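pasting for ref. prot 1 ->
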Amino acid sequence: MSKNFEAVVLVALMAITLLALSPQPIHSTRPRVPAPPTAQIAALVKGSGCSLPSAQCLASINWSGYAVTNATNSVTFVGASWTVPAIAGAFGNTCPDTVKTWLDASFWVGIDGFDNGYVEQTGTSSDCVYGQVDYYAWYEFFPAVSYSLPSADVIHPGDTMYAYVNYTASSSLFGIWLQDKTPRHAWYFSLYGANAGAPRDSAEWITEGAAGCITSDCSVFNFLALTDFTSVTFTGATATVVCSACVTPGTYTFPVSSAAWGASLNWIEVTNVFYPPPGPFLRAIPTAAKNSAFTVRWISSGP
């Protein structure tokens, strides 16, 4: 997995002072994995809220949510809001020292990544890092590494976030916007950057257990356990696509819940599909999208 650090060209920065941008876990790993044709997985998919045709009900090793897929050079915008979830459940809103591991739960919107080696994305994470609580905001133009924002210092559970990624054809640049709309913690971050070769063939609203680098160049990595966040709800989830797979082909801005997406909309659960028996293990699952919103529920941290 190559790292093209020069792919990101920053031409605008957030309104608050940037003190440092430090690398964080990589958040994109070609997640499209059709659910294995077993009775167990089929029952989980159809019994847990996937109302789409079976070909659009997918399992992933690290993504849960929705993705709209389409032709190359077709996606120009994706956006949504969510509330930063607290670390919850068995961890009791803390990360006890007995948890000697790194757990990650990341919430983001992005363009690309569904079935290619690129993603332009931004979001927040609720992590347990070897016993320490860590809430932070970040962006990533994969295959370059992700970067946390100094505004992570003011990310708190319960903060309302709004994020979008767009593409401007005249400049061939992606724009990223991430905003904390909570009055006592208000800030925003914006930038424009290039990601050479990005196909712009999908838009996503995702909850993820990211991958952590084992080697300094991140050529070796592993998928992190999924932090218990109980649930997160994406609202105002929309995308703008030149949609060839829509019920009526054309250029549209639709909410994730629109039936007009047709076969281009995909529902994704996190299942450790590559684990041997007694796996696979269901880790997170989305509800049916309704009124431009859906919820992702945490099930387990995984083996």
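and prot 2 ->
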Amino acid sequence: MPDINEQAIELHKQIHGKIGVMLKTPVNSRDDLSKVYTPGVAAVCTGIADGSLDVREVTMKGNTIAVVTDGSAVLGLGDIGPEAALPVMEGKAMLFKELGGVNAFPICLNTKSKEETIAHIRAIAPTFGGINLEDIAAPDCFAIEDALQDLGIPVFHDDQHATAIVTYAGLVNAIKVTKKDHALKIIVNGAGAAGVAITRLLAHAPENYALNIDDIIVCDSKGIVSQDRDNLNDIKKGLLGYTNKSNLSGSLKDAMQDADVFIGVSKGNIVSKEMVQSMKDDPIIFAMANPIPEIDPEEARSAGAAIIATGRSDYYNQVNNVLAFPGIFKAALKFGYPTITEDMKYRVVYALANYIKDPGPESIIPNALDKGVVDAVVDSLTGLS
């Protein structure tokens, strides 16, 4: 039997791309043509131009997202370029439609700087109701998202925020299951887009959404992010304002001693059984590197891990950002929200956590393909000012 890679290649060859264009009304007569094109369409255009018609009500803009990448940080593949990124962006567009009923179209930009990317997105923004930034390398992804918050439509870097939201939701239930009632020491390994967003969301939660956290220690490929490091970029320096309160230095192995939670968004096979054993009782392991987790789940279990989550679909507790982004954008489009706020992110965290009525060691987050999740997310974002 062919493996999944061979099957995927064969499928893509057969279908020549995973998405297409569907007509919403027939064009079978001169009358049809007159209404969808000339001369009737001119009335729609002038109505938009003079403000008597809302472009979102009479065009695709009201329910269409651009999934935008420069191909610089694709899945676990790295900087493979915009054309090689297209299959992933098509897949993301499929998930928008299948799970959220939101139209989405992949835009793969051949840009070489954040300034170019920002300019191109500004130029195409009139077509779309929202922009989902995808697979753009740090630190440029932070600057690109920040620069586009004035577009009047939601601009949301999925790799950052949706990953952080789903991770936080899973952690809420993991703490319920393990009954950890003390202040937590949390290790975040990986200081790219996802790692920084997870850290920020955990550290800056308002009181009604906050977990009981003693400290968060962030590690990158060089070890613990500390005041003693002279090789930190501005993003990592910014983390030191609210992490690593005791200025611990050293390696990931040093950081994990007596920790309660390990959250990995880095690379595979960098956590050993001994490192898990050095953590506090009933450690929580989120080994989310793809396609190979930071530690094999069975090895983590044999080392005493009470809760294990990964980013893979063939293990339980899959931390998948598909649980967040379809519902978030569906709500933003439905209610006309111009941005995705911090309050909205925390509302979605607890909507996802509370969706699991009886969490257990192998059920701390919803199934990635559970279509009821989108409704729960939309409900949590209804009626915001």
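Strands lie at 64-69, 103-108, 130-133, 155-157, 184-189, 213-220, 223-224, 261-264, 284-287, 307-310.
The mean pLDDT is 96.
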